[in-house]
Amino acid sequence: MSARIRFGAFCLAATMSLPGSVAFGQQAGVLPKQFAQWSGVLAERPTETRAAQLQRELGETSPEVSGYANGKKQVVAVLEKFRDPSGAYEAYTLKLRPDMQPSDIRKLSAVAPDRVLMLIGNFVLEVEQSKNISTADLRALASAVESKADHTPLPPIRSYLPEEGLLQGTQRYALGPVGFAAALTDLNESKFSTLTPEIGFATGAEAMVASYRAAPNKLQDLVIIDYPTPQIAEQRLRHIQALIAANPEMAGASVERKASLLSMVLSPVSAQAAAQLREEIRYQTEVTWNEPSQTLTDPPWLVVVKDIFVGTLAFCGITIVLGIAFGGVRVLTKKFFPGKVFDRPEDMEVLQLGLSGKRIDPRDFY
Questions:
Q1: Which of 225, 118, 117 is nearest to 161 (CA)?
Q2: Contact yes or no for 162/197 (Cβ under 8 A)
Q3: pTM for this prediction
Q4: Would you say the C-alpha torsion 298, 304, 310, 311 has a positive or negative sign?
Q5: DSSP for residue 217
Q6: Where are the domains of the chain?
Q7: For the segment 261-311, what is each residue's pLDDT rounded down to a tens digit?
Q8: Beta bridge partners of 315
Q9: What is the pLDDT of residues 309-347, one digit of tens each?
């Protein structure tokens, strides 16, 4: 192992120098002191790091560095820590390169000829000199780190990118303007960097950028931006359309909205190719309405008919009983107290036509 290990490929811009080599035992953190058959040894910190603006956007803290030895074989692990898995995912995608291949070490991992890159929760783990270590041992190291990682779900926008024609290693996730500008630079689309202020990252926007093969030796770049609400997406759509229309350098670029998702095809091969790429975006909208519900069900019809007959008979029986009771009380009252309670003569009136001079006495009716 050389006296000084360079990590220039790990970072985007040099901003500050950190102290030199430190003993593994003096560095308390996430990386294990040993795993499988590997033991910690001396290692140096990287001499380069990201720009301060990007560090703040990602919520990045000081990385951990450790060397490991297994007999004569040695590797170096660099663990970068971030505020949350979204920041770690942005940093992970910024490190991807088209020459890297997907790895079976874990779901989100990539390998280069002598380097392995892994996303583990809110950590990005990079192993240098990876040809010296087996896949099983790399999994053991990842498992040791994963036990201390934040397991918050990753941004769902990453699953919206179409798979067909995707140039692996060009995927870039951005949750802020600095990362978005860096993603455009990586894809040689810096001329569209003036769009960055109009994206509206302050409103909660998230973006994914990737390159796609549209024809032999021809690429076009897709940008998808997810907003919290369709209203915000519509507002930002108008801003972006106005800027594209006013900038001749962006001629040919197009932007469309679907619910809360904006899609832009930068430098399209043709209008047809751009439309086809948009159709393959894996984004579905669904409107739900929470209506009141009940678990009661209608009884069998035989039970309903029985209840109708029983209720009718009960109603008839009550009516008969009440009729007899009322009639009996009236008859008894009139028998024992004639003209005292019911049908009192002074309360009776009879209409007469006046055909005779004899006045009708109401008592004559009883």
A1: 225
A2: no
A3: 0.69
A4: positive
A5: T
A6: 1-153, 155-283, 317-360
A7: 999 999 898 889 999 999 999 997 665 666 666 677 778 889 889 999 999
A8: none
A9: 999 999 999 999 999 998 888 888 878 887 777 767 666
